[in-house]
């Protein structure tokens, strides 16, 4: 993946906008996000192992809570970068529908 200086969000293809949206990430951003997901995946495997080994219920619940916190942190990082790049660029380019898309996304996250 080539290092990008600017956001590269665009709609690619003839499919509906929701299905066709893509985002080229910098190598650094990609690695950070992937590392977070790999850690979360490891935590989930750990919970599975706890269940298989008859771990105490509250110990499992606490680990699941840690996974939820890690996923929330991943979402915050991803959303923050989206706002700094894609949303800001679209607003600068007069694409105000991006604001409504962001509002809808935040609303769905807060359910």
UniProtKB/TrEMBL annotation:
One of its GO terms (molecular function) is metal ion binding. GO terms for biological process: negative regulation of DNA-templated transcription. Pfam families: Trns_repr_metal. This is Copper-sensitive operon repressor. It comes from Coprococcus eutactus.
